[in-house]
Amino acid sequence: MTNLTAEVVSIGDEMTSGARLDTNAQWLSQRLGDLGIDVQFHSTVGDTLQHNIDVFRTAAERVDFVVATGGLGPTRDDLTRQALAAVVGQPLELRQSALDHITSLFSKRNREMPSRNEVQAMFPVGSQEIFNPQGTAPGVDVAFDRQGKRPSRVFALPGVPAEMKRMFDQTVAPRILESVGRRSHIEHLVMKFFGIGESDMEHRLGEMISRDRIPRVGITVSSATISLRITAMADSPEQCRELIRGTRQEILDRVGELHFGDGEDFEQYHAVRRELDRRGQSLVSLELGNAAKLAGWFASLGKTATYRGGFCFADLPELAAVFAVAVPSATQTLLEKTGADWLLVVDAYPSLEVEAEEPLPAAEVRFVVVGPDGRTFSTTSRLGGHPAIVHARIGKAALAWFRTVLARESSTADSAAATTP
Amino acid sequence: MTNLTAEVVSIGDEMTSGARLDTNAQWLSQRLGDLGIDVQFHSTVGDTLQHNIDVFRTAAERVDFVVATGGLGPTRDDLTRQALAAVVGQPLELRQSALDHITSLFSKRNREMPSRNEVQAMFPVGSQEIFNPQGTAPGVDVAFDRQGKRPSRVFALPGVPAEMKRMFDQTVAPRILESVGRRSHIEHLVMKFFGIGESDMEHRLGEMISRDRIPRVGITVSSATISLRITAMADSPEQCRELIRGTRQEILDRVGELHFGDGEDFEQYHAVRRELDRRGQSLVSLELGNAAKLAGWFASLGKTATYRGGFCFADLPELAAVFAVAVPSATQTLLEKTGADWLLVVDAYPSLEVEAEEPLPAAEVRFVVVGPDGRTFSTTSRLGGHPAIVHARIGKAALAWFRTVLARESSTADSAAATTP
Q1: Which of A 196-255 lie inside 8 A of B, CB atoms?
Q2: Which residues form the MoaB/Mog domain (chains A, B) (predicted)?
Q3: Do residue B16 and residue B128 come from a single domain?
Q4: CATH number, domain at A378?
Q5: How far apart are CA B377 and CA B345, in angstroms?
Q6: Among the partner residues B48, B311, B339, nearest to A321 by beta-carbon distance
Q7: Which residues constitute the domain of residue B168?
Q8: Fewest C-beta in 10 Å: which of A39, A116, A319, B11?
Q9: How many angstroms separate the Cα of A298 from the Cα of each of A226, B9, B292, B350?
């Protein structure tokens, strides 16, 4: 199988001027990589027709697949349709099916379609539509002939991330697979890990993260959480899932002790909630120092019997003053007043007031869990890193410690239960 | 003055593969825009020598200034120096001054310089160094001859954001100004605003945000906070500051009532802290629902007499239970127990569990301020927006309401003082 290549093109003055951060290119690069396609270039260009034509022509000459975002709106600044027509040397024509969809979206919102939106139903002759279930901008799918090489394929999608992502997954990815004669189905599974650096993870996974592996395993890191993304392509969804199951087990055999759950958006606080739900127990958090990560994460779960509140203070005496108790008994008092089963304490988040953007030197942070019957489990970690992520890393390390305590407790309880006649 | 143009180039497989999000290109685009230079393209390329050569050649042909990041490390993947040498057709030579700096950085860290780092002191013949005060990778500044046009100038900087930013401000920006015969000094001031949308702000500023204005005023938005960035170029820092003062006043005349402070990193919670410090008063926050923004923001200030703690619950009954009081008196009890002067309540942050990435419909949120003597000031807003920013917007609206209450209180107090003999 020859090496297939791609380029991601982002269109809009708001990107070239720096008014907006382009996150589409990263997302598309990951997805194309999942398909086994080597993304070689990103190009960003403003709303100038000739520049768009130049960028599309260069891209279509040098790679097999071009995926572009932006420039498909109804205004005069939106030039992607014209640029593509110029590149393939075809006029634009009105497609009734696209126009009907746009009109129906407006009538669903009880609005008349402005006449300028008609332009969104114009396509270069010979191109295919890419259906947009959410918005008025259909995408354009057009082939570009190249001398001596297979034609390249250009997919133009809207810049709105939610629309772009759905259209890529629903239509573009299957068309890419079909065009290169690959398996017709594709499925993903994301596994989440905490407690290891990226390079150690890569080392332990070894050849599993090779780009040639089937199914492919991709690694990404976000604020000290590692995601492994398994992508399986096969002739049926069942076969995809079977492949994923096998690879998932191989990964668990290597790094299972660091795995806390599956799913793109699954975080440790979801894992904690699940475990507490299972036990019918509840938690409060106490965060001291310069951040309140746990309070924010658990609050995002909404009202739940599991999480009973977040308390955030500069230091322990501030908490003690609220309940008018001595400092040493403040945490125990907090647990009693809230009626929760567990208290998780971060003591303390460091200040980030250092030289801008320099990594924060590692500092000692203590994590304390106070459990039923007032038993206390504490540990100290040395944690540092980039200021943008160090507080999140500390909050996550606190959750990892709490998960460790829960696991120990449950194995103790199990063995106690096992030895009780 | 002719229109000067630029391209930003980002180098590294970690960017083309989507493993890392490129934020350098956005920052550089804003800075180049501040200098009055029109950024027309961004290009991202992996660690492949021929691709780097192609991208640099295309960029140098089509714009006046190219600013690149990445590929200046000591490993075999770092190809920027070789690519630039190939593009200008000059060999690489060792620069003793650069080597001395690299060696001295290692000896400061009590480490021997690995021999592979020597390559970081290699420069294309005829190029200039760009000093890197923080790291071992000096930048490269090289001119590229173009037929019939002024030569283009290529600046290659390391990919580490903190190093890149400092080198751009210290060396690249002054060299760009010098090369185009512009004023020799440049100063920035960022003014911050809350309570208005971007398009309304643009409308009220009118011609002030024209790209030709001197000094130039740039507008950016981050989670509903608007930043206006004034950039003045003149023959001395004093003249720059004089220009900035005048423009700042013009802006205040138009939108002064929405202005809450100056400085890139100055946020509303800093403004609140400053005002409470001035009064010698203190605040606690109570956040209900699905977020804990205020707790996080105020915690980041560290221990201060101003902020006495953050309390986060699903709803008011949860708070009432902690203090074993009836729900209606829970907020008053909280204020008394903490001994703070003011309580700011967000009631409540909505759940974000909607269709992924679709804008959240506007929902009613109540903001309550309880002040000294138990007086209560409340307001209700309808707030929605993109899930990534809607909770921050609600927290910021709460701070805006608190600032309004403080301002009213102080004008009431002033007028009371004025009428008292």
Answers
A1: 219-220
A2: 7-179
A3: yes
A4: 3.90.950.20
A5: 10
A6: B339
A7: 5-179
A8: A116
A9: 20, 40, 9, 14
